């Protein structure tokens, strides 16, 4: 007799008792993105034409898009910062689903635009919520998705946004063996690190990708997800030699 447990599971999570939260920005020329990239562009290749429903040469609309690989809500894979790292085609399907942990530092980020997540913050979170599970996707909630400009520039045009400390990411990898990380700004590291001229500007991003893990950037709606108990699905193309691409991510959360 056929095993229908997975069918029952799908029916269960689509029913009452669960909510589905879209963690992805809409993809368009207005999508929040890193300042160094051009907005998404679309060129109409084919468009509808007049015809009858019986016309076998049916009209269609087809658009050719031009977009940077790390645009909007997107995945970064190891090859993005590590020449010997895996490309997108090498990411396994099991790496698209994780238990989801949300570390809420939105209040701190509102008070300090360059707030930096530390090991102490993660240990405090564990004291309140329990141990971060192995293989988890750890998301840094800052509520940065609510800003119209992710760079949050001052009057002189200098960016100000939060990020992870390298030590915090190392702790998650080495002490908890997490599967991936995610955040709402367009960079892993805080702005005061990425704008330094006397040191390598992306140490946190370099580290997480060189541990052969992925990350998701420019997330949204983490304020609708509980600290524990949810799962995350991260979908993106199986692109040969791809370093990253716009992604569709969502969380499935228990209602209570």
Describe this structure in words.
- By secondary structure, the protein is of the alpha/beta class.
- It has a single domain (17-30, 69-254), classed as Glucose Oxidase, domain 1, CATH 3.50.30.50.
- The protein contains six helices and 13 strands.
- It has helices spanning 5-13, 106-111, 119-129, 166-176, 191-194, 203-210, and strands at 18-22, 41-46, 62-66, 74-76, 97-104, 116-117, 137-141, 163-164, 180-183, 214-217, 230-235, 244-246, 248-254.
- Strands 1-13-11-5-7-9-10-4-12 form a nine-stranded mixed beta sheet, with no helix packed on it. The chain has a two-stranded antiparallel ribbon with strand order 2-3. It has a two-stranded parallel ribbon with strand order 6-8.
- Helix 3 crosses helix 4 (166-176) and helix 4 runs parallel beside helix 6 (203-210).
- The mean pLDDT is 94.
- It is an enzyme of class 3 (hydrolase).
Q: How is the secondary structure organized here?
A:
Layout: H1 5-13, E1 18-22, E2 41-46, E3 62-66, E4 74-76, E5 97-104, H2 106-111, E6 116-117, H3 119-129, E7 137-141, E8 163-164, H4 166-176, E9 180-183, H5 191-194, H6 203-210, E10 214-217, E11 230-235, E12 244-246, E13 248-254
Parallel strand pairs: 5-7, 6-8, 7-9, 9-10
Antiparallel strand pairs: 1-13, 2-3, 4-10, 4-12, 5-11, 11-13
Helix pairs in contact: 3-4, 4-6
């Amino acid at each position: 007799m056929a095993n229908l447990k997975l069918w029952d599971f799908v029916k269960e999570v689509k029913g009452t008792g669960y909510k589905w939260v879209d963690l992805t920005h809409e993809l368009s020329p207005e999508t929040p993105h890193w300042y160094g990239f051009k907005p998404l562009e679309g060129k109409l290749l084919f468009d509808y034409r007049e015809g009858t429903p019986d016309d076998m040469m049916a009209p269609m609309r087809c658009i050719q898009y031009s977009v940077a690989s790390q645009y909007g809500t997107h995945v970064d894979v190891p090859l993005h910062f590590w020449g010997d790292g895996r490309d997108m085609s090498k990411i396994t399907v099991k790496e698209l689903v994780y238990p989801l942990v949300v570390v809420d530092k939105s209040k701190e980020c509102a008070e300090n635009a360059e707030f930096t997540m530390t090991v102490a913050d993660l240990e405090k979170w564990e004291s309140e919520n329990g141990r971060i599970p192995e293989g988890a996707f750890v998301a840094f909630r800052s509520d940065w998705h609510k800003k119209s400009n992710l760079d949050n520039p001052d009057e002189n045009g200098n960016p100000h946004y939060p990020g992870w400390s390298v030590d915090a990411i190392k702790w998650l990898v080495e002490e908890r063996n997490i599967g991936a990380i995610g955040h709402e700004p367009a960079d892993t590291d805080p702005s005061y690190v990425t704008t330094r001229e006397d040191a390598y500007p992306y140490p946190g991003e370099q580290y997480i990708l060189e541990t052969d893990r992925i990350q998701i950037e420019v997330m949204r709606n983490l304020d609708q997800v509980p600290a524990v108990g949810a799962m995350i699905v991260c979908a993106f193309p199986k692109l040969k030699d791809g370093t990253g691409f716009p992604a569709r991510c969502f969380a499935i959360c228990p209602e209570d």
